[in-house]
Amino acid sequence: MDKQRLGETLRPYLMIAPAMAGIFLFVLYPVVFLGYLSLYDYNLMNKAKSKFIGFDNFAEIFSREDFYKSLSNTVFYTAGVVILTLLLSLLLAVWLGKKSKFNVFVQAGIFTPHVVSIVSIALVWLWMMEPNLGFLNYVLKAFGLPTSEWLQSSKSALMSVILVSVWQGIGYYVLILVAALQSISPSIYEAAALDNASKLRTFWKITLPMISPQLFFILVIMTIGSFKVFDTVKVMTGGGPNNATNTLVYYIYENRTTNIGYASATGVVLMAIIALLTFVYFRLLSRKVHYQ
Amino acid sequence: MASIAFKRVSKAFDKHEVIKDLDLTIEDGKFTVLVGPSGCGKTTLLRMIAGLDPQTSGSVLIGGKDVSRIAPGKRGVAMVFQNYAIYPTMSVRENIEFGLVNNKVRKAEREELVEGISKAVGLYEYLERKPSTLSGGQRQRVALARAMVKKPSVFLMDEPLSNLDAKLRVQMRIELIELHKKLGATFVYVTHDQVEAMSMADTIVLMNKGVIQQEAPPDEMYRRPSNRFTAQFIGTPPMNVGELGESGSLFGFRPESAVLSEAQGDEPFSVRGVIATREMLGSETIYQVRSGSGNYMVKCSEDLFAAGQEVYVGVPAAKLHFFGEDERRIDEKESSYGKCMEALRGRSHG
Ligand SMILES: Nc1ncnc2c1ncn2[C@@H]1O[C@H](COP(=O)(O)OP(=O)(O)O)[C@@H](O)[C@H]1O
Ligand SMILES: [Mg+2]
What we know:
The structure holds two protein chains of two kinds. Chain A is mainly α. Chain A has helices at 2-38, 56-61, 65-96, 101-115, 118-128, 135-142, 157-182, 186-194, 199-210, 212-227, 231-236, 248-254, 260-285; strands at residues 40-41, 51-52. Helices cover 72% and strands 1% of the residues of chain A. The two termini of chain A are 44 Å apart. The model of chain A has no long low-confidence stretch (mean pLDDT 89). In chain B, a hairpin with a 4-residue loop joins strand 14 (269-280) and strand 15. Chain B is built from nine helices and 18 strands. Helix content of chain B is 28%, strand content 31%. Chain B has two domains: 4-223, P-loop containing nucleotide triphosphate hydrolases (Rossmann fold, 3-Layer(aba) Sandwich); 237-349, CATH 2.40.50.140. Magnesium ion is lined by residues 42-43, 158 of chain B.
């Protein structure tokens, strides 16, 4: 009798054991190891020379100018990408929300960049953004508009990287929002029309709240993703010019060989920032999100 | 003040014509029920009044004014949708208030109106709740309150009770009738249920395939159906209709008009048959009688016969209806009425 009950208690744990093993091995262990490394002055060549130094790595992080530079770059990048993507994808989704052959075609077009590797995209944009021979300046010149130095100037480099990231990601989010818009019952809009609601008011009071779960999802996912941006920076600018596009993950990457303990500590800080941001989002916004 | 008129109105969905050259006047302050089988165009008609799906041609008048170019929100109509179409993201209060805010009603007045209405429909305690936490009946009341609070001169309702359980439906029917009396507005109520139509309407408009079959008060609709379709649509079980012979005319009688007896009487319609089925419903019993000339449903208040028994079905002259070859009613005053009666009598007693 008791044996049977023990079996019943254990069974669910047995069932999830394989998945839990995976999580321990590939999620928890690396995180714990990251934390462990961050407390050491770690020597990759000779493990014996590694030294436990407590929170010295963290103290160093917060006293170094280049950390703050990459942090502010990352924040600026994230804000730019998130705000632009949300606004543009919402605009496009509202435009594409009405079902028609043409719209399906446009939607497929917008989605295509998402299928292509960001590395290829970054390379193509790298050429297009070349100040003297590139396509973008050629077009600007053709229309008599002022040209830009794009990636070559520390003033416009970060903005250029933001542009590419938005261009690449937007199709996916448009797709999510179009699906959300199309799932709203048309009779709700008819009721609003009978309630004498203007177009703008209908959008604010009905459309936006109805798609708020999707908008919130995009906000959280994009913030986390943008904070961890790496590939675009690596391919397009290598953090330059003059650290103008150096972001946190790229900063970690730069320090990986010279000082792995310091890099790990930065990784821990990055994790903490993302966790804090997500927590703040949920605290501030989840009440405004309407789940069916 | 707010009668509704359709003038040669047609409506097509991508070339598929649903309603063609329809003329109809709905009287001011009356409870008018649009009834007909599913897909006959009732909803289409209602949505044309609301302006949600404007007509393809012809004109719709509300209160004598052509509203073809007026937006739905400015026609002075309110509508209760079949699925209620409550705004799911808003609280009950916001739902009811939304139209008032859009119409720039001042806050103090708004609050008074919302509270008054919500008390009237029994939603006062639920004002701050989200619709997803309400029962079906309560959501229905939200939809009603939202329509009422705007004090419209025309109330449109599209099968508003069809999602409720049977008991609640009967209760809501009575409440709607009372509501109509209290408000005195023009009610246009759509249903496919003829019992609902009979119990609520001042005037029934019966439609089939986009064409109005008859427009009359319930008792007239029941006693003097203007064609075969009306005769068989209204009433349960439907009217018995049979062929009268070579002329192609038809005769008909309601199940409760027939008398069952063991011996043949001298009614103009009298046939011998066998009771095939018997349904005992409590206050009445419904028999299906199988005879040489067809099956007849007979409704009796007394339960005197058993299945398998041989009986005579008799119908007195006053309770017989006749329809011509074109299925239109043949009136008592028409000359062919007498001929039909003779033909029937000849067949029964020949
Ligand atoms: N938006 C639409 N597009 C195409 N056909 C429609 C549309 N709405 C209704 N119809 C057609 O019009 C006819 C009448 O529909 P409706 O008015 O909804 O009938 P009901 O009497 O059941 O309310 C049906 O044949 C239906 O298929
Ligand atoms: Mg309908």
